[in-house]
Amino acid sequence: xxxxxxxxxxxxxxxxxxxxxxxxxxxxxxxxxxxxxxxxxxxxxxxxxxxxxxxxxxxxxxxxxxxxxxxxxxxxxxxxxxxxxxxxxxxxxxxxxxxxxxxxxxxxxxxxxxxxxxxxxxxxxxxxxxxxxxxxxxxxxxxxxxxxxxxxxxxxxxxxxxxxxxxxxxxxxxxxxxxxxxxxxxxxxxxxxxxxxxxxxxxxxxxxxxxxxxxxxxxxxxxxxxxxxxxxxxxxxxxxxxxxxxxxxxxxxxxxxxxxxxxxxxxxxxxxxxxxxxxxxxxxxxxxxxxxxxxx
Amino acid sequence: xxxxxxxxxxxxxxxxxxxxxxxxxxxxxxxxxxxxxxxxxxxxxxxxxxxxxxxxxxxxxxxxxxxxxxxxxxxxxxxxxxxxxxxxxxxxxxxxxxxxxxxxxxxxxxxxxxxxxxxxxxxxxxxxxxxxxxxxxxxxxxxxxxxxxxxxxxxxxxxxxxxxxxxxxxxxxxxxxxxxxxxxxxxxxxxxxxxxxxxxxxxxxxxxxxxxxxxxxx
Lengths: 296, 218
Fold this sequence. Notes:
Mean pLDDT of chain A: 95
Oligomer: heterodimer
Strand order of the largest sheet of chain B: 2-1-3-4-5
Structural class of chain B: alpha/beta
CATH topology of the largest domain in chain B: Rossmann fold
Distance between the termini of chain B: 45 Å
Order of helices and strands of chain A: HEHHHEHHEHEHEEEHEHEEEHHEH
C-alpha cells in the first residue's frame, strides 16, 4: 500500500500547487466565463496546467472545481451539470498525476451566506458540498480540499457534507484577515475556534490560504501551530493584484520575495504548503527548490 | 424617558444590531412628538459611527455590520412615513446606483457597501451582480443618481470599471456623477489611474468617502 498524502505530510513537507484560475485565463478563459466549464470544453488546457504543476514539483494538485458547488455553478446557469463538471475535474488531474502523486478535490465557498445574513440553511449548504464531494471522489480525487472559507459555519457544513458523502480525508483551509487584534475571518471567526471546530468535525488537516502574502502567512502559521496538533496547511497569496497598462495583471509580491518566507512558514510548523492567487508553476518550482535545500 | 436617555438607547440599539429595539424607540420618538430629523442625527447616526469605528478596530465583522444596518433600516421604516406626513425628508446623502460589473458574479462586498450606504442616509439603487455597463448609466440617468459605485472582485473584470469611466466620458456625462470603485483587486492607485472619483477599501470607508465627496456638481 502506498503512502497517503497525510502520511507523507508526517514524514516531510508536502508541496501543493499554485493558482489555477489565472493560469486558465492566461490560456484564454474569457472574462466572466465559468472556469469549471473548461473541464469539459477545454480539458487539454486544464490538464496542461496540472502537468505544469506536477513538473514544477507539486506532490498534489487541486482540481479545477473551486467554484464547483451547485450553488456557485447556479450563478452561471450550470447547476444541473454539477456532478459532471466535478467528476471531470478530478479525472483530468488524475490523468496527469504521476504514480505516488495526489489529486486534491478543490471545494471553494458557495459565495452565498447562511441565514440570518443570507438565504441559505446549513442543510442546503451541506447537501451542496456533499454532492460536489461525491462527484470529485467518483472522478478519482485522493483527498478533498475545502478552501478559502470565510465563514466557519459554512466550512463546517462543507466538512460534514464531504464526510457524509465520501470516505476521503478532508483538508480545510480558512482565509483570514489581519486586524489589530489578530487574525479573523470575514465573519469574525478567530483562528483558535476555526482550528478546534474543524478538527472536532473530523478534518484530516487544517490551515489557511489566500488573502495574506507569504510574510504575513509565516506569522499566521506560528499562531495556528500553537492551536492544533493536526497537520497544518499554508497557501499564501503573492501579495495583491496590480493591473498594469494594457490590462496585464501582476502581483505585488515577486517570486523571490514570496519564496524567501517559505523556510519560515515550514519552521513555524506548516506541513503542507503551496501557493494561492498570483502564484504559478514558477513559484512552485522555486518553493520545491527551497524545500529541497532545507531538507538536505 | 428624557431625550438624552432616548438618544443613548437609540445609539445602543444600532451598536447592538437590535432591530426590534431600534424600531420600538423610533415609535416612542414619534409618539412623544420629537423632532424626528434630530432623532436621526443625534440618536441613530452616532450609533452607526460607533459601528464604523468598531469595524475599523477589528472588533466588529461582517455579521455585526449587517445587523446594525438592518437595525437602522428598522428605525427608518418607522420614521420615514412620519417625516413624509409632515412634509419633511431625512437628510439624504444622495442617490447611489451600485452594482458588480459585468462578467463578475461576486456580490458579498457590494451588498455590504449597499447596506451601509443605505444605513448612512443614501438612497441606494442596487442593480445586483454581472451588470452590463450600459445598464449602470441607464439607471443612473433614470433616477438622477449622484454616485455610481462599481464593484469587481476579479482582476479580469476590474477593467470594466475603467470602461465605465470611459463610457461616461464618451457620452459627455462624466461630470454628472461621482464614480466610486471597490473590490478586492481595486486600489487608490487604480482609481486614480482610471479617473474614478474615489476608492474605498471596505463598506465603512465607502460611506465615509461618499459623504466626504458629496454629489457631483451639476
